Amino acid sequence: MASSSLSVVLILCLAAAALAQLSTTFYNKSCPLALEKIQNSAATAVKNDRRMAASLLRMHFHDCFVQGCDASVLLNETSVGGNERGAFGKVGSLRGFEVIEQIKKDVEAVCGPVVSCVDILAVAAPNNRACVGGPSWEVKLGRRDSTTASVTQANQNLPVPFLGVAGLNASFVSKGFNLTDMVALSGAHTIGRAQCQNFRGRHYNESNINTTYATKLKLNCPSPATNLAPLDDDTAVAPNPELFNNDYFINLQSKKGLLHSDQVLYNATAAGCATKDIIKSLGRLL
Ligand code: HEM
Ligand SMILES: *[C@@H]1O[C@H](CO)[C@@H](O)[C@H](O)[C@H]1NC(C)=O
Ligand SMILES: *[C@@H]1O[C@H](CO)[C@@H](O)[C@H](O)[C@H]1NC(C)=O
Ligand SMILES: *[C@@H]1O[C@H](CO)[C@@H](O)[C@H](O)[C@H]1NC(C)=O
Ligand SMILES: *[C@@H]1O[C@H](CO)[C@@H](O)[C@H](O)[C@H]1NC(C)=O
Ligand SMILES: *[C@@H]1O[C@H](CO)[C@@H](O)[C@H](O)[C@H]1NC(C)=O
Ligand SMILES: *[C@@H]1O[C@H](CO)[C@@H](O)[C@H](O)[C@H]1NC(C)=O
Ligand SMILES: *[C@@H]1O[C@H](CO)[C@@H](O)[C@H](O)[C@H]1NC(C)=O
């Protein structure tokens, strides 16, 4: 299975973020149906909108990179520290808030308010195998929701797509991740979409891009800046950009990364070439 090495790394990465007292059986007594409810509601949302699998995964990432995994991404009032969704002025880029709200309601209908929003985010994110394939992982539960958010930290801590390897590394190192973690986690870009404004500088101005691919992107992306393209052109293993597989790593090897921050990971001149070797190993056609 092409995705097995990727799934192992992903599981290790996410497990590292868990605290000792967290447990996979945290809600067994207080809300035995919690996992099933969350998973079913998330699956329904993804069935209605396949991109939602990507959007929920990204929301989990954005939550965890700001004040730790604490659901602060859901808060949006100035009085609690601001609206993290609006970091970088990118209001409207994160998607799926209404899905999380619906799941919370569904879970409360059977158990009351015992299940935290951060646990809902953590369980909803990986649970989309049935719809988009790829790995799932067991999530340790029992995290508490924050009552504060930080738009300042969101602006400082979330990596932007214009960074090079050093800047990306600094961002992930500050969260306790190494280069292998960083490359594996970037593999989340095997699903989902990005807006032109986040990559048009690359296909118009960079040389480290497949010319066929650049031509294709230009057709869709002279304007407006909100047009979308798949983060993973996804033709190497299966001709479907919505599937979670290792095509992201394969495509980087033929210069078909969508974001600057994707392609730099496979830049032969990047420090020590470590990220290049990681991509080659995750992108092996097995
Ligand atoms: C390495 C640093 C990263 C950068 C610079 C980055 C940047 C971006 C950007 C610019 C977009 C498109 C947003 C838009 O145009 O509205 C995006 C989308 C996405 N990102 Fe990342 N990202 C990074 C890492 C990650 C990680 C670690 C994950 C999860 C594990 C992730 C998951 C996603 C997903 C799933 C989407 C698609 C969301 C959708 O279609 O709604 N990204 N990312
Ligand atoms: C990177 O961290 C992961 C755990 O997150 C660990 O399994 C792996 O050995 C580390 N890799 C290196 C090269 O240090
Ligand atoms: C908790 O619930 C899960 C799922 O229902 C079950 O597989 C597991 O055995 C339970 N664990 C404990 C310690 O009760
Ligand atoms: C916060 O989000 C809620 C629910 O999505 C919305 O009703 C409210 O208007 C938002 N408030 C601000 C200040 O953006
Ligand atoms: C990543 O950051 C760490 C800690 O600052 C540093 O030791 C390492 O050289 C950096 N690696 C790259 C490739 O920038
Ligand atoms: C390409 O680079 C030129 C010169 O630096 C700049 O003026 C132009 O805005 C860039 N194009 C895009 C799409 O970023
Ligand atoms: C560019 O993409 C085309 C079409 O997918 C592929 O045949 C070609 O080998 C790629 N070129 C390079 C330099 O990787
Ligand atoms: C690759 O690295 C070189 C040297 O650091 C740099 O000049 C070039 O812009 C990088 N390419 C990309 C696509 O980032």
TrEMBL record:
Ca(2+) 2 binds at residues 190, 232, 235. Gene3D superfamilies: 1.10.520.10, Peroxidase, domain 2 (1.10.420.10). InterPro entries: Haem_peroxidase, Haem_peroxidase_sf, Peroxidase_pln, Peroxidases_AS, Peroxidases_heam-ligand_BS, Secretory_peroxidase. Pfam families: peroxidase (PF00141). Residues 21-286 form the Plant heme peroxidase family profile domain. Its EC number is 1.11.1.7. Keywords: Calcium, Disulfide bond, Glycoprotein, Heme, Hydrogen peroxide, Iron, Metal-binding, Oxidoreductase, Peroxidase, Pyrrolidone carboxylic acid, Secreted, Signal. The record marks 58 as: Transition state stabilizer. Disulfide bonds join 31-111, 64-69, 196-221. It catalyses: 2 a phenolic donor + H2O2 = 2 a phenolic radical donor + 2 H2O. Its cofactor is heme b; Ca(2+). Its main location: secreted. GO terms for biological process: hydrogen peroxide catabolic process; response to oxidative stress. It is found in: Secreted. The active site is at residue 62. One of its GO terms (molecular function) is metal ion binding. Residues 1-20 form the signal peptide. Involved in defense response to powdery meldew fungus. Removal of H(2)O(2), oxidation of toxic reductants, biosynthesis and degradation of lignin, suberization, auxin catabolism, response to environmental stresses such as wounding, pathogen attack and oxidative stress. Belongs to the peroxidase family. Ascorbate peroxidase subfamily. This is Peroxidase. It comes from Triticum aestivum.
